[in-house]
């Protein structure tokens, strides 16, 4: 395959850093798509839907490239937690995660229009959080402003001290399940002429 | 507690980066201790033994500070895999991990001589690896020279594409179980005068 043949349809610096772990050249072109939480879909369908919307948004302009779209959500008791709207929303999200196990789902879409590639999957990771005090929560929000993060936390920052354990792919929680993506991508390029 | 009151008795840049996630000041002073694999201890006792040896080695010179020692090993079928001696050793380690689940154990020792603090624990994480081809293994070794890493891989580098899932603390696999350490450390400073 050619260099620069992959386009990451995301503005997330975390996804960029994860994808950089693989020896594949890529460029990032953020899509215009923002998740619309008023669309009522079950969690797995929801994150796959938005991953594909993001990939399609870029794919139409770059039909010869592999476009990678991803959408990460946090699911607690079957409710989707997106990015917090403001400080109060962030506080209530973190309170709801305290002392519990939640699920992080990332939908991943790989599209290449010219050769008809249209792969869509999702990956789940269970994350168990220690009991958080109010002061843990306020300190974390005030020092990290986690407003760009689903569930209002970053597993790669100081919130890691509250993560008791995970079950599944770590990088999925950061925004891109790299091992699953790589497996699918190798299968895709094997099938290409 | 005072600033610079914690000494990380390790030369590992990975442990330094993990400990930096917490809002606690520390300095790193590597110990002179190297694990001696001829000492036959069961895996949990082995990594706790060497964590404490590393901490003690520094603690004797800094009796007023909290000294943090850690030792990480990879355990497969109850055999301890340390750091590979050379390329062939690295190849055989990675072949043995291919397609299987192994355990990563980190022993952690926290010592402060002046106040009699001597805490010792270990944390386990299960890591499941995809099937690796010979070319996966050769490429990885040639690009990463993983000779300073127990088990011959780094979960934070491009080896992540072969990690199917983990069960437990991610940072434990990198060398320091930050959430367990933080919990123990808060308990220790609560008890101090």
Question: Would you give an account of this structure?
Answer:
Two copies of one chain form a homodimer. The first copy, chain A, is of the alpha/beta class. Chain A has one domain: Maf protein (Alpha-Beta Complex). Helices cover 34% and strands 26% of the residues of chain A. In chain A, strands 1, 2, 3, 4, 5, 6 and 7 form a seven-stranded mixed sheet that branches. In chain A, a hairpin with a 2-residue loop joins β3 and β4. In chain A, α3 crosses α4. The mean pLDDT of chain A is 93. At the A-B interface, β7 and α6 of A face β7 and α6 of B.
Outline the biggest β-sheet of chain A: 7 strands, mixed
Compressed to H and E, one letter per element, the order of chain A equals: EHEHEEHEEHEHH
Question: How much of the residues of chain A is beta strand, in percent?
Answer: 25-35%
- Quaternary state of this entry equals homodimer
- At the first level of CATH, the class of chain A is Alpha Beta
Give the overall shape of chain A. elongated
Radius of gyration of chain A: 17 Å
* CATH level-3 fold name of chain A: Maf protein
Largest interface: A-B, 27 and 27 residues
- Share of helical residues of chain A: 25-40%
Going by helix content, strand content and strand pairing, the class of chain A is: alpha/beta
Note the gap between the termini of chain A: 10 Å
Q: Helical segment tally of chain A?
A: 6
Looking at the overall shape, the CATH architecture of chain A is: Alpha-Beta Complex
């Amino acid at each position: 395959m050619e260099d620069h043949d992959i386009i990451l349809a995301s503005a997330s610096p975390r996804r960029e850093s994860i994808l950089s772990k693989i020896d594949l050249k890529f460029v990032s072109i953020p899509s215009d798509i923002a998740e619309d939480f008023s669309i009522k879909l079950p969690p797995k369908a929801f994150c796959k839907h938005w991953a594909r919307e993001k990939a399609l948004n870029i794919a139409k302009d770059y039909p010869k490239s592999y476009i990678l779209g991803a959408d990460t959500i946090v699911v607690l008791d079957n409710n989707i937690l997106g990015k917090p709207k403001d400080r109060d929303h962030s506080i209530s999200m973190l309170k709801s995660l305290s002392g519990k196990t939640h699920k992080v789902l990332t939908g991943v879409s790989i599209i290449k229009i010219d050769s008809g590639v249209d792969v869509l999957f999702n990956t789940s990771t269970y994350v168990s959080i220690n009991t958080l005090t109010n002061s843990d929560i306020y300190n974390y929000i005030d020092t990290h402003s986690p407003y760009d993060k689903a569930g209002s936390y970053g597993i790669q920052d100081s919130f890691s001290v509250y993560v008791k354990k995970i079950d599944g792919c770590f990088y999925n929680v950061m925004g891109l399940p790299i091992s699953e993506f790589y497996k699918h991508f190798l299968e895709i390029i094997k099938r290409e002429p």
